[in-house]
């Protein structure tokens, strides 16, 4: 096995971005490289680090065992094809910290895949890049960005949507603002756009490989021919397109599937971040939104009058 990288110098790569921005596609492309292994979404920060008060003092054996079992219980543990006994045995030799356990998780995944480079793909780790950099001072981040109108259009089929286009647009805006305001130190981040990855895949991947100090491999373009165990489309059906060949139809689908009002709403909420990222707005947002607000106000007034009339008649 290629075990030349001891755990204490592990420098993983993290694929991050607002959900439905192409992180899964990028994961598939990188994971197809013979020297790279990209773990699926562990949500380690959200599932464990942010719940550290719940798990308590890890110096207490009972607390530590509860945490180990919780880590092993996530679906991704099985999808990473990790050995439970080996993980638990190795965990007993570690400094009892969240950073050490995340390191162990990734290191055993790397060893199982026999690669030089290991990474992990949890989109919302974009919000915790500085925390991850305290865990892994030499970590590198790959941030993929996608047109918010396309992102929010795709959220119509996922369980985490806020239920409103305006709410979803605000989520996207906050992701982008956080990435801009709290980047990792030392320029340890590579930013690419989903649109570039789709329209000029090879050129985009070559630039990414250069950032990672890695030779480009043509297998990255043939990712869809490999049966990935890191994407479970039965559990997460919205990821189905990410295991198929690149399709540029996904770039502009939002133009026909979103209404003018939906487009206007997204642009009104996210226009500042959109402009900074090179996405042009196309609608006269405020007149549409104002007209819609007036329409809803009139409807509410009618309903209120009907309700009052009913009360008067009683």
From TrEMBL:
One Gene Ontology molecular-function label: protein-tyrosine sulfotransferase activity
What Gene3D superfamilies does this protein map onto? P-loop containing nucleotide triphosphate hydrolases (3.40.50.300)
Q: Does the keyword Transferase apply?
A: yes
Where would you find the membrane-spanning parts of this chain? none
Q: Give the matching Pfam families.
A: Sulfotransfer_3 (PF13469)
Keyword Transferase part of the UniProt annotation? yes
Q: Which UniProt keywords apply?
A: Transferase
Per its UniProt entry, which superkingdom is the organism in? Bacteria
SUPFAM superfamilies found in the cross-reference section? P-loop containing nucleoside triphosphate hydrolases (SSF52540)
Write down what this protein is called: Sulfotransferase
